[in-house]
Amino acid sequence: MGERTRELFILILGDAVCFTVALWLTLLVRYAEWPSSENLQSHLGPFLLLSALWITIFYIAGLYDKHTLFLKNLLLSRIISTQVINIVAAAILFIVIPFGIAPKTNLVIYLLVSIVLITVWRLFLFNYFSPKNKHKALLIADGSEAVELADEINNNDRYNYSFVRILDYNTVLSTEDFETKLLKVISEEDIKTIVADTRSQHLAEIMPLIFDLSFLRFEFVLLDFNKLYEDTFDHIPLSSLEYEWFVSYISPDSGFIYTFLKRTADILMALFLLIPCAIVFPVVIAAIKLSDRGVIFYTTKRLGQFNQPIDIIKFRTMTGTDNGATTLNTKLEVTRLGRLLRKTRIDELPQLINVLKGDLSFIGPRPELPARAKVYADAIPYYNTRHFIKPGLSGWAQINDYNAPRGEVDIDLTKNKLSYDLYYLKHRSLFLDMQIALKTIATLLMRTGS
């Protein structure tokens, strides 16, 4: 069983146990007696269905994501916000489906007990299932990404190894007889794992030795730095990018079946969502007209697939309109109504027309202003490769990169955002698109409720 599979299995099993124990405790508290088998059986079906629903919501909310240090820092707030959604979902479930029991009091007790159990399990007890005996590892890399990976591995209990030594490329290149000293480090530190960029030119001279020790003598396990970084953080290390990488992993051709199914899903979903929009649009139109009597819709230039300009349709949320194509700054201000429309993403509903036209997909890298994209393309190598595929209303970066630039030009933050976009380009599939769609819904619900 792999590390990620093991973690996911333990989390789901632990949550299921918490929900089951919560039901038993609920009946104990509610009836002030040891729960009888008849009472348990009458409640088991409805509450098992509720537990399955909650586990699904947990997944959508990201509570089954890799437990990196970043996620652990957000865990308590994410549990609380998710449980708020779960309370609403539970109330709807018992209203829609008549189970033949009187669940109101039991449901309230169950919610309170399960919240306590889940919080204790996730924040405290889960750590006891972390690997106890960590292997010693050697990291041969440098740069900010190497520091980030070492910090994550060494300070997070979820991994079964830790870096006891870190050698940068300067040490490798400047040390005489490095091979002998490397063997000494491996022996003295009892190294069981080496993480290195196997394609780096800096390590070209010592790679034959490392290969021999790992694959022929079985002295240690060799892991590729770039793959480990990508698997850990779910985005591409930009230091690994070169022309060969794009030839190997990135192509504007997504395959006929994937392209056909995704386009079909885009059309069907856009048509379906336009049905409730028939009610929402008149209300928004009236609200905009009553607020300042300005124009209702506006179009703004963005870069689409293959760097081709497209016109994006939105509800107006600012005091005026500009297309943003020739300037990076605007003197316009967001209106009071506009803030509400932006927070709920209602201002973007007219983009369903763009989806039907084929300018946008529901899932893909977010389209950028042409003027801003030019700045980024001049400053960030390979930036325009994000335009290989059709842009989308939501993407991998939107649900994972919490530090993405919000309107202003920021080279460093956009580099990080690009690393998520490239991860999507490399791994795009219907399953990944579905995952992004579900987590986008969760993000919108939590944002609307905040």
What labels would you give this structure?
single chain, 450 residues, alpha/beta, Rossmann fold, 3 domains, 4-stranded parallel β-sheet, two-stranded antiparallel sheet, 17 helices, 58% helix, flat, EPS_sugar_tfrase, Bacterial sugar transferase domain-containing protein
Q: Secondary-structure element sequence? A: HHHHEHEHHEHEHHHEEHHEHEHHH
* Coarse morphology: flat
Strand content: 5-15%
The biggest beta sheet is recorded as: 4 strands, parallel
**Total number of strands:** 8
The neighbouring-strand order within the major sheet is: 2-1-3-4
Helix fraction by DSSP (H/I, runs of at least 4): 55-70%
Any idea how many domains? 3
Task: Extract low-pLDDT stretches.
Answer: none
Task: Note the total helix count.
Answer: 17
- The radius of gyration over CA amounts to 26 Å
Distance between the termini: 39 Å
Mean pLDDT across residues: 87
Class based on secondary structure composition and strand pairing: alpha/beta
